[in-house]
Amino acid sequence: MQTAVPVTILTGFLGSGKTTLLNYILTQKHGHRIAVIENEFGEINIDSDLIVSADEEIFELTNGCVCCVGSARADLLRILQDLMKRREKFDHILVETSGLADPTPVAATFFVDTEVARQVSLDAIVTLVDAKHIGGHLDDPSLQRHDNQALDQIVIADRIILNKIDLLPEKELPGVEKRLRQLNATAPILRSSHAKVRLDEILGIGAFSVAQTMAIAPDFLDAHEHQHDPSLESESFVFEQPFDRERLEGYVRKLVEDKGDDIFRFKGILAFRDEPRRYVLQGVHRITDLRAADAWGREEPVSKLVFIGRNLEKSELDRGLRSCLT
Predict the structure, then answer these.
(1) Rounded CA gap, 296 and 275, in Å?
(2) Maximum CA pair distance of the chain?
(3) pTM for this predicted structure
(4) Per-residue 3-state assignment (H helix, E strand, C coil) for the chain
(5) What gap in Å lies between CA 243 and CA 249, rounded to an integer?
(6) What pLDDT, in 10s, does the model give residues 255-297?
């Protein structure tokens, strides 16, 4: 009898810090050999370019949101089956969901296929929460008649990481924690900045319980179609011509100033003129960050950007970005 391979699902709303946590896990000395399965909402996958470690096995799910019935869920099962054929290479699996995923049907995937279910064990659902923006997402009036993924991700969590506490005054944190506790009475809440937490509190903890989950979601094991917020959309761009950094920074500042409420998340890998390194652009509403990454090396410099939000005009975004190209 082989021991079942533990699986941790990393979830959290757009911009909560999932990839940051994943990178933190992969660069720490924790003794685990980890295989990573990651899924993104947009048409192009940027998160795989943001993962810093090349030692682990990285698998991308690009056929849609992993929580939806269909090709993405089937791909998840296929990857798990392939992993089981060479399980001697790893002892833990991390599944990073998209920011719009409902983790409940993702978790159910590990119980609906008998071949996979015999060989893996769902260890925990770890939900990251953006301390600064979570209130606005939970109270989003546009979702009164639709599923609220930010809420669903908190309700089902075995561990809640209250991330980005450095962006919020200390006196406001207890109020945020009280709100989280109203949605989930049992999951420990871990405070963090830049997604740095004790890894023995989120990995190998055996926290997931089918009985407890079915008490919250009685239809947990039923196959059902998941409905995303219909007002949210994703627009993706690829440019082979490099950007002028000064012009792009000015454009992004003006963009978030004018439309920051509607832009939930944006991220990109950027090539700048006369710059040998890649640059990583991250944004959540009006908070942006641009920093240098590794060198392009032999790779051809290509910029890739994804915007997720409401009322996005692709042609307008395209014109604005092209005006920043050299």
Answers:
(1) 9
(2) 61
(3) 0.77
(4) CCCCEEEEEEEECCCCCHHHHHHHHHHCCCCCCEEEEEECCCCCCCHHHHCCCCCCEEEEECCCCCCCCCHHHHHHHHHHHHHHCCHHHCCEEEEECCCCCCHHHHHHHHHHCHHHHCCEEEEEEEEEEECCCHHHHHCCHHHCCCCCHHHHHHHCCCEEEEECHHHCCHHHHHHHHHHHHHHCCCCCEEECCCCCCCHHHCCCCCCCCHHHHHHHCCCCCCCCCCCCCCCCEEEEEEECCCECHHHHHHHHHHHHHHHCCCEEEEEEEECECCCCEEEEEEEECCEEEEEEEEECCCCCCCEEEEEEECCCCHHHHHHHHHCCEC
(5) 10
(6) 999 998 889 888 889 999 999 999 988 888 888 889 888 899 8
Structure tokens at 186: 């049992």
The token duo for 209 is 């319980």
In one-letter notation, the amino acid at residue 286 is R
